[in-house]
Amino acid sequence: MPPMDERVQQIIFEARLTSADLEVFWNAFQNMDAAATGSINQDQFHALINDEELLFFFGMCLFDIVGARNYKALTFSDFAYGLITFSLFGTEELLRFSFNCFDPERKGTIDLSDFNMMSRLLHARYF
Known about the structure:
Distance between the termini: 38 Å
CATH topology of the largest domain: Recoverin, domain 1
CATH architecture of the largest domain: Orthogonal Bundle
CATH superfamily of the largest domain: EF-hand
Order of helices and strands: HHEHHEHHH
Strand order of the largest sheet: 1-2
CATH class of the largest domain: Mainly Alpha
Low-confidence stretches: none
Structural class: mainly alpha
Number of helices: 7
Helix content: 55-70%
Number of domains: 2
Largest sheet: 2 strands, antiparallel
């Protein structure tokens, strides 16, 4: 497993993850990185989430929000940081995250068409 940067080490500590937990992330990452390049691309990530458009959309938003350096070529640190961060979200953070996906400029508002799309996506997937 490659060394983790400081932000990943901090979130691993906060989430109280064990080395066995990290091995699960590492094994998933290695399975996607079949060419052993040290990074995965969008198509490889898309395959991990079984090609579900909604999950892909929110997955790309997650990596953008947590500051992944290049979501088109995710390193293991970015991959682990994004997934661990998402797993720590409570209800309020999930709502804020969903809103922010439709407000990429961080204006604090979304228009009615974006709100309707967000509602349809979330409603169709989970209810």
